[in-house]
Amino acid sequence: MHDGCVLVYRERQLSDQFERQLTEWVQSMDDYLAGVGAKHPAQEGQREQKWYQEDGHYFDASWKRQFARWEAHSYTDQLHDFQRRTQEVVDHLCDEHGLALAPRFNSLLLNKYRNGRDSIRAHSDSPHSFGPTPLIAVVSLGETRTFKCTSKTDPSEGETVELASGSILLMAGQMQQRYTHEIVREPHKTRPRYSLTWRHFLLPH
């Protein structure tokens, strides 16, 4: 990793009860969106998603085009509880690794990968919505999938991680400036994977 970049991965970070509750919650919903946001099945290889933000803000207001899949869903008491419990786990990990405590989470991007054919291309997260050095916490549920990050200046440099159910991956520091990240296509895998990606969303002034 380049200086100033943080990538931490730990398995079995959730209690059995918490992992079960999260899994039941993500599996209970039938309003995930994909494509331009119409409520129809995603196209081949296209993940489905739901975006939550406590104050109802669009994912990135700087984008010229806007789509329904990036419009914020409302928080419920249950989601606030899930967020609080995740924050506690992440703060413990930060303390364990000598990192500054995570800013208070106020947003969640929930992704559904129906099978190994669904993926997400290499990208970096929006500095407009999350700042240049955000802390991003990714909770994985379901099928193990391959996460890959690649240096923007040297494609031969990077890391590959197998994201297991119940694990947490942290990205922080200058990761979004210096690396892209992606979920690799794995057509032989048939079970779904869900990722809960928690961040601090920067509220407009």
Which geometry do the CA atoms define? globular
Biggest sheet: strand arrangement = 1-9-6-11-4-2-3
The CATH class = Mainly Beta
Helix content: 10-25%
Q: From the alpha carbons, calculate the radius of gyration and give it in angstroms.
A: 16 Å
The ordered H/E elements are EHEEHEEHEEEEHEE
Individual helix count: 4
Point out poorly predicted stretches.
Answer: 36-42
User: How many DSSP E strands?
Assistant: 11
Distance between the termini: 34 Å
Query: Which strand-content bin applies to the residues?
Result: 25-35%
Our count of domains comes out at: 1
Q: Assign the structural class, choosing from mainly alpha, mainly beta, alpha/beta, alpha+beta, or little secondary structure.
A: alpha+beta
Largest sheet: 7 strands, mixed
By CATH's scheme, which homologous superfamily applies?
A: Alpha-ketoglutarate-dependent dioxygenase AlkB-like
The CATH architecture is Sandwich
Mean residue pLDDT? 92
Short note summarizing the structure:
The protein is α+β, with helices and mostly antiparallel strands and 205 residues long. The protein is built from four helices and eleven strands; from the N terminus they run E-H-E-E-H-E-E-H-E-E-E-E-H-E-E.
Outline the structure in words:
It is a single chain. The protein contains 4 helices and 11 strands; from the N terminus they run βαββαββαββββαββ. It is of the alpha+beta class and 205 residues long. A hairpin with a 6-residue loop joins strand 7 and strand 8 (158-163). The longest helix has 20 residues, at 77-96. The chain has a single domain (5-29, 48-57, 70-199), classed as Sandwich (Jelly Rolls). The strands form 2 sheets. Strands 1-9-6-11-4-2-3 form a 7-stranded mixed sheet. Strands 5-10-7-8 form a 4-stranded antiparallel sheet. It is globular, with a radius of gyration of 16 Å. The protein has helices at residues 16-28, 77-96, 127-130, 175-178, and strands at residues 5-10, 48-53, 72-73, 107-113, 120-123, 136-142, 145-151, 158-163, 168-173, 179-183, 193-199.
